Structure formats: structure tokens, C-alpha cells
Amino acid sequence: MSHLDTQAEQDSSLWSNNPVLVGLLGISPVLALSDRSSTALAIGLCTLLVGVGAALSVFALRGRLAVNLRYPAYSLILAFITSLLALLVELNFYPLWRELGIYLYLVAANFALLLKMDTYYQSERLAWVFKDACRLGLGFLVALLLLALVREALVTGTVFSDWAILLPGSESLDPMLRQQSGEWLDFGALPPAGFILLGLLIATLRQAGLLQAQHFEARNPDEVKRERVTGRLKRKN
Question: I need a labelling partner for 147 at 20 to 30 A (CA). Which of 129, 155, 160, 193 fits?
Fold first, then answer.
């Protein structure tokens, strides 16, 4: 069993098995949309809704998918729910939809969600599937929002400065308002700052005892799976 299989079988958690802070999965939107708290909260909620919807859909299809068609089916389910959600966001939250951009559609390619789908498919407990999917989405949301709060506070000195963009029918904000920042703290809005601050956040939470490093049993590389051969081998003339 691989490390990813072991991680997928573990119960999701806000801290001990957080997909971002522990598994380092799905960090592309985390780094791209963590410069503002409003967009971080929005993409986190979208990921939560897609994850729960996909988990329930996969659970409803258990026992009806061929083994070689499971993961293509999981991908199609994630893509369908993500596309439907993106359409609703575009119709009701157009400025927010424009700010999220392609990362809203990339929720369908979030590996942290795809990794858990087969576990939900093989589960026989609907309540556990729903709770675990909620914990998985909330773990992603918490990690993204924590990083966004730190970055926005460092750059602008405020948090949720453009909260109005989260309201239905809101108008886009003046781009000049987003550029108000200090001098040296402008670095916090740059992509490299996302990597650095994420690493510092993980180190701080781990030092506080909230995160625990995952430990996997090492396999002996010399171990080779032996095939059982029945019958006699015929000698070729």
C-alpha cells in the first residue's frame, strides 16, 4: 500500500490529517488565492461544497462502477459539480467569479478530493462519508483562510477589506484600493511569499502541537512479490 493510499484511508481532520498543512495536497489555489481573505474564503467554501456533493454522489454509485472506470467517473463527477457551481457563482457573484478565475474550475482537479473518492465509494456508512467529506473541506478552508489572514494583514494591515465582493449582486471594487500597502511588506503579495508564509505557518502549528507529521512503514526494497506457479514447466526442445 502506497503512502497516498494510507493517507486516503485515514479519517479527515482539521489538524492531524489536514490535506494542505499535513498532506501538502491541493496547494495551488492556496498559494494563488491566499493574498486576500475574501477570495480565500470563497474558494474554500466552493471546495467544501464540491467535495461534499461529490462524496455523496460517489457513495450513491457504490457497486455500480467497473474497477477500471472508477477514477474517470470520479473525475467526471467532480467536473460536473464544479462546472455547475461555477455557473451559479458567475450568475450571482460575477465580480467574485472574475476574481477567482480559473482556480474556481480547478477545484475539479483538486487531488485532495480525488484521493478520497475511492474511500467514499467503498464505504458502507453514509453518515461517515458525509462527516469525513465535511472535515476534509473544512480542513482545506481553515488552512487557506489562516494563510490568507496572515498575508492580507501583513500587506494591507486589514482583513476582509473587500468583504462586499462576497455579497450577491455586488459590484467590483476599485482596483486602486487593493494596491494600498506598505513599502517592504509588498513582498507578502508576491508568489514566493506564499511558499515562505505557508512553511512558517506549518512550522508554527506543528511547534504548537496542532499538527503531527505522518509516519509510514518503510518497505524493504528487496521484497519481491512471488508468483505461485502450478503444474509442471515443459522444456522446450
Answer: 129
Check whether 181 has a pLDDT greater than 60.
no
Handedness of CA 44, 51, 104, 195 (dihedral sign): positive
- Mean pLDDT, range 64-78, rounded to an integer: 92
Average pLDDT, the chain: 82
Angle in degrees, 0-180, between the axes of helices 191-207 and 126-156, rounded to the nearest 10: 120
Give the cell for residue 194: 506564499
Residue 77 has pLDDT above 90, yes or no: yes
How far is it, in rounded angstroms, from Cα 116 to Cα 133? Answer: 8
Mean pLDDT on 115-140 = 93
Find, among 180, 194, 184, the residue nearest to 150 by Cα: 194
Task: Report DSSP state, residue 226.
Answer: P
What would the mean pLDDT of 174-203 be, rounded to a whole number? 71
Using CA atoms, how far apart are residues 151 and 31, in angstroms rounded to an integer? 10
Query: Would you kindly state where each structural domain of the chain is located, as residue ranges?
Result: 3-207
Q: Evaluate if residue 221 carries a pLDDT over 50.
A: no
Dihedral angle of Cα 23, 89, 171, 163, to the nearest 10 degrees: -30
Phi, psi of 38, deg, nearest 5: -65, -45
Q: C-alpha angle with apex 45: 9 to 204, nearest 5 degrees? A: 65
By CB atoms closer than 10 A (0-12, 13-18, 19+), residue 147 is buried
Distant-in-sequence, close-in-space partners of 154: CB < 8 Å, separation ≥ 6: 185, 188, 197
